[in-house]
Each structure stands twice: as C-alpha cells, then as structure tokens.
C-alpha cells in the first residue's frame, strides 16, 4: 500500500457500518436510509458487492445513476463508502455470451449460472471483463471524497475449477515447483501403487473420478487453488492501485476457513478484513483465537471486522437471536483484538433471495424502535465516544505466540493416518484457550514471521516441518523463497526461547514425504526424544493419565486425563516430566523437557485435558515472568491496545450474569461512561468497560 493509502486507512476513527445494497430499493427507501444511518452513527457502507447486473445491465451499457446518487447522498450524510468490485456475482448475459467463464466441477461438468462465486479464475474472458468493469469503477469514483476503501470481490473460496485451463495451469505450476518429474515422483512417493508419472500431461487434478487419496497431489492441488485465487485477487487489485494508489484495498476473509492460505493473501492486502459469525452460546475463546489468527497473518497490524450479524444468522442450523448486549460485546471483543471496525451484514433486510431472513440493522418492519436498531445505535454512539482514545492504537505486544500454518493443516488433515480425526483448528484453539482464560496476551504467528518479541512459542500438531529443500508454494516471488523451519525453530530456542510442541509433530516435509530417521524428524535433536510408536484410540474409549514426576513443573496436580493420541517416547537426553499412568505403556514418558542453547523445548506426547493445558501454561508463563492483562475473573476477557502515549484496557464479560474484576493498582477513565475507575470493576451481563488507563 502506498503511504497515501496507509494515511487514508489510519484516519482517526472507528468504522461503524455494513453491507448496503441501494440498487435493491426505490428512491424513497434510499432517502430514508440516510436518515436512519445518522440515528445509528453509521460512518461507512460497503456498496456494490453483488451489483454487476445493475451496474452493467447489457454488455458495455453502464447505468451509473443509482451509484452516483448513493455516493452523493451518503457523502452529504458524512458516510464513507467501501466500494466493491462485483466479480463475486457476474451477470447472466456474460455467461450466456461466454459460457467458458463458468467453473467446471470435479466431474468435468460445466456449472450453470445460479449462485455466486462460480466463475473460473483462469478464464481469459472472465479476467478481461473483470478488469474492464473494475477500471470503469475506479475511473468514475476513484477521486470521489466519499471513497474510503476498495472491497474486492466477496469471500473467495476454493477449490474452484477443474477445467482444462486450470488443469494446464496446475501442471505448469507443478513444473515450476519441482523442476523435474523425477523430483515430483520422489516427493509424492510415486513408486507406491505404481503412481509414477512419465509425462507432465499425465497429471490430472484430484477428483471423484481420479480418486482423492494421494496426499502429495491433494496437498499441491490445494496450494495451487489458493495460489490461483490469490493471483486473481492481485489482478483485480492491480487495476485499482494503478488508478487510485491512495485508496487501501481489502477483501473479506472467513477466519479459519480451510480452502485458502490466508497468509499469502495478507501479503498482498493493504488491510485484512474478515466476516465473523459465531454461534450464540459458543465458546468466546474460539472467536478470540480467530481474531488473533486474522490479525496475525498481517503481522499484528490493525484489521477490520467487515461482517457480523446484528441479530440472527439465517444459514446456521439454528437462527438464534443474540440476546441484548451480546452484539455490542462481540463488537468490542473484535476491537480489543485490534479491529478498527464493527460492521454488519446487512444494513437492510432484502425482500427476497436466500438471505432475506438474515439479520439486519433495519428489519422488514423498518422501525427505528426495534430492539436491534436501538442496540446498533447505542453501539455507534459508544464507538464515537471511544474513538479519541482507541483510534490509532494497536494491540499490545504479546510475549506468547502460537504457530498456525495453513499448509501444515492441509497436510495433517489429508494424511493417511494415524486415525481419521484430525482436529488441527480445534487443537490450536484449545492451547490458545488455556492462555486466554488467564488473560495472558497471545498472538497467532506465521511460520515465516518475526518471532523476536516472543518468550514462549507453541506449535500444536506441527505435522509438517518444511526442510527448505523445496520452495514455499505461491507466486513466482515466493517460489524463490526457501525456509528451513526446523533450523529456524532451533535457532530461536537457542537464543533463550521456550518452545512447546505436541504429538504428531515433525513427521513430514513440505511435500508430505515422511522424514527418515524417526519422528519428530528435524526436531528430534532439539527435543531430545525419539517417538517409537503412535497409539490412536477412539476418544472416551480408553483414556489414560498423565502422572507428573516429583521433579516436574510447579503448580500442577499429581495427574490429569489424556486421550485420543499417545506417543511412545524414548528420551535421548530430554528430562522426563510426566509419565503415562495406565495401560501397557504405564510408566513411559508423555511429557519431556530438553535444554537447547540458552532455551528449552517441551514435548507433550498425548492429547491432554483442558485443565492440564491451563496449569501447564500457567507454570510456564509464571516462570517466564509473563503477567496477565488483568487478574483472573471467571468469564471476563481483558485486552489492551497501546499507541500515541495511550493505553486502553477492554474488559469484556462473556457471562449472562454480573461479574467483577480487579484492576490491581491501576486506574483510569471509562471512556463510555466518563467515570473514573480503580480497584474492583463491576460488569453487568455481557457488560463492557473501555478504560483509558493512567500511564
């Protein structure tokens, strides 16, 4: 992003608004929208997301009238615009004239025009028309004073297309990655089941027809499809950057969605944004963890909560309403985790289509007296109050990082064993939750990121450890980048780092080829262990116990439950901190510690219960001198943002009952109420305090 674009994005405000579809409504309703936006303190609207048919009703014939009017009307109402490019839902006339713009499914059948996101990203015709309409939008509105942000397409998804163009591009990508068929055959271990290739043309994308069980092929297909969509985003962004270099660009991501490697997208986004739709009654730590992931892919820069529902989500199994206060609580949780926005899908409920019963700020009754409307208005007013204190700050630096790698996840989930249950995301979230419950700040960290700020680095299920022998998949620039992850981890630990990893780590290289010499492969020397066998049982069928040694960590109980995975560990210099308590491997190690340089590395060989993780990380963070943001208080999350000489503390009560939290010796001013606070702070049900602390 240019300095001008960075300046525009970092303007002194918190964004409040959401998806707005003026093309669906008559002039009288649009005029009413401006009045209602003022009442709700809305200051930004995402517009034109699915409006290609309305913008260009016939080939080359543009109707700008409704969008011109929207820009002028919202600008007069002091509402900025996040203008979308419309590629997510192209018009029927384009499909009718050029059927090849539609994707082909994995059975070789060309998809029909219908729902959104069904285009082929390789299609030269589609790319030409997208570039053409994007250029027209940028030339018409690029200098309009209401334009704050480009919202490129909407919720890209993969795998996308199996057409001949995509299959050819896949083979070219593989040839660039491996260089020779001999290298590819070796890395995919093609001698098994006689799966060697003798010509690049023999390689087909995995499908229901080819059989979808070959791990190396599956892994590279996922990498390629993610690369393809990222390249398509770059095509869209290039036109916008050429004409409007001062306007920042985003596309809305989807949290822990498994189809795309969002770290690669973050490298070419000006600002990360994502759409958060947790279920009512779910675990708030999972939402916090996903916020940390979305923040972490852009190296902890500020991000945007682009979508959330103000009430109910129609596509979930149960469209449960958010009770009073929960929508505001979850908005402040996002802001505490670094978001500079609280935005919604959608502003006004549509009268038809598949999302007509999805929550909205303005319901079908269009009453400003509605509960949800009043709650949105109250939050908007509070965001304005908080803007002087919060805008321009960033999440306080954490000293704990958890590694999250999408390629590692793909490889682990697609591996041929042991067992079928591969809860990569859930396991990362359980380790995160153990620290979240104690209000210890945690980042989710990229493998290729800068780890220098962290004292504790956690890598659950680090199944894939890239050797550096082959490049990271992605763009031609990334093809030239090599990273020996095992060596990077070793060097970080050697320089006073504390490292924790778990069972099923260090198994394969970047191509899902198992390391020779025993598990955990390149981490074996660092951890001082060898894993002889891996036992995998149905959870709940035969749980075991973790029995802590007398020389183990302080603050832990004598024993804890463990389940599902049980490594058979042979120490090779590591100190044994805990052993299994039953079964034929009773007495064998399940938790070890190994000194390495000035640091130390821990290995947890089993799937431990949550209370073990809570106490284990409490012991480690205490030993490292890492302090929680606020004292423990059940159900209360404490977050902090810093910047410009300011420190802002967010206290969030995730319970439907009152809670109290201690500030210790700290004090400050509640920016929402104006009251001075110190000592014990009371929080109502789903209550929030935003406190500018005295420094």
What does this structure look like?
The chain is of the alpha/beta class and 695 residues long. The protein has four domains: 3-159 and 228-391, TIM Barrel (Alpha-Beta Barrel), CATH 3.20.20; 165-202, no CATH class; 400-623, Rossmann fold, CATH 3.40.50.880; 636-693, Immunoglobulin-like. The chain is 31% helix and 21% strand. The chain contains 19 helices and 26 strands. Strands 11, 12, 13, 14, 15, 16, 17, 18, 19, 20 and 21 form an eleven-stranded mixed beta sheet that branches. A hairpin with an 8-residue loop joins strand 18 and strand 19. Helix 9 runs antiparallel to helix 14, helix 11 (284-296) crosses helix 15 and helix 15 crosses helix 19 (610-623). The longest helix has 29 residues, at 215-243. 50% of the residues are buried. The model has no long low-confidence stretch (mean pLDDT 94).
